[in-house]
UniProtKB/TrEMBL annotation:
<dbReference type="InterPro" id="IPR052394">
    <property type="entry name" value="LRR-containing"/>
</dbReference>
<dbReference type="InterPro" id="IPR001611">
    <property type="entry name" value="Leu-rich_rpt"/>
</dbReference>
<protein>
    <submittedName>
        <fullName>Uncharacterized protein</fullName>
    </submittedName>
</protein>
<dbReference type="Pfam" id="PF13516">
    <property type="entry name" value="LRR_6"/>
</dbReference>
<dbReference type="InterPro" id="IPR032675">
    <property type="entry name" value="LRR_dom_sf"/>
</dbReference>
<feature type="signal peptide">
    <location>
        <begin position="1"/>
        <end position="21"/>
    </location>
</feature>
<keyword id="KW-0732">Signal</keyword>
């Protein structure tokens, strides 16, 4: 009776689709009643037991579905042929805008299919592959021939990252907490940063283990890509983190060169000045004169954060002075 009533289906979806141990057979029955259902734009089936067969059923359904916009099937134990089928379905479906496949068992066997799908898909904006089973171990041969990771037989992960970074519709790609050696990641990101046709806006690599030197290295790679934000470290950093990092560089410059903040942002030769605010242009000019690297992907958010309640177009010196 439930499955014959569209209204009840929609109501119950909101009640039992998440974390209720639905198996592959349950999903098959459910999906058969939702084919192009006009009310289903968002579907959350996370934290269920779809496994291999459930993944295959979902993939078949997605290929023919022209209504669904957002699908979350994270934490569903999707693996093997189910993962491969979904990897291919990404390219066959051109309606989804958000797909969460995190915390499943997608492996390197699906990389080529995902890469091919991203070259075909023209609607997906957000793809989450965080916390799967993708692996890239560091080998001494990569030290001698780093191009093996970008053009050789070990380049599958890099090619997928390129496909994600240059897909014209994808804006957010989450790939953190996989089994990627940071030394391998840096080699791949160095190559990725050389591309001139990157359209991706957010590359989330949080959850990968790295030391301070490696973090600093990655932070510097995408300074010339104004729109792309690359998130690294144990968690996704906020604008406050980036603003504090920049403020520390500013104060380090002032101490090393024995200049005041006012002189840095409003220099008048031979005269020591005291100002209460700086314009956005003065702030940027001061950074350039001091040769402080400007994180272009974050600078608009940083300026807005520092500006706070100041007059439009200005930043209070109190926001910059952290002494």
């Amino acid at each position: 009776v439930i499955l014959n009533c569209s209204f009840v289906i929609l109501t119950l979806l909101l009640l039992f689709d998440v974390g209720n141990s639905l198996n592959a057979n349950d999903i098959k029955i459910l999906l058969s009643k939702l084919v192009d259902h006009p009310n289903i734009k968002n579907l959350n089936l996370s934290h269920n037991q779809l496994d291999e067969e459930g993944g295959k059923y979902l993939a078949e359904w997605l290929v023919d579905n022209h209504v669904l916009l957002n699908l979350d099937i994270s934490w569903c134990s999707i693996r093997l042929l189910g993962a491969k089928a979904l990897a291919k379905a990404i390219g066959d479906n051109n309606k989804l805008v958000s797909l969460n496949l995190s915390s499943n068992s997608f492996t390197n066997d699906t990389l080529e299919l995902i890469t091919q799908s991203l070259s075909r898909n023209m609607t997906l904006c957000d793809l989450n592959l965080h916390g799967n089973q993708f692996i890239c171990r560091y080998d001494m041969k990569f030290k001698e021939n780093p191009s093996d990771l970008t053009t050789g037989k070990e380049s599958q992960i890099y090619k997928m990252m390129v496909a994600a970074a240059t897909n014209q519709s994808l804006t957010t790609f989450q790939f953190g907490q996989n089994h990627i050696d940071t030394r391998c990641l840096i080699i791949m990101l160095e190559a990725l940063a050389q591309l001139t046709n990157i359209s991706l806006e957010e590359l989330d690599l949080t959850g990968l283990s790295m030391n301070a030197k490696q973090t600093s290295k990655i932070d510097s790679l995408f300074l010339n890509h104004q729109k792309l934000k690359c998130y690294i470290g144990p968690v996704r950093y906020t604008t406050e983190h980036f603003a504090n990092y920049l403020l520390n560089l500013i104060h380090m410059h002032c101490e090393q060169n024995s200049v005041t903040l006012s002189d840095m942002f409003n220099p008048i030769e031979g005269i020591r000045t005291t100002i209460s605010t700086v314009t956005h242009e003065q702030f940027l000019d001061g950074l350039r004169r001091a040769r402080i690297p400007i994180p272009m992907a974050y600078i608009d958010d940083i300026i807005k954060y520092l500006g706070g309640d100041s007059e439009p177009g200005t930043i209070s010196m109190r926001s910059i002075d952290i002494t």
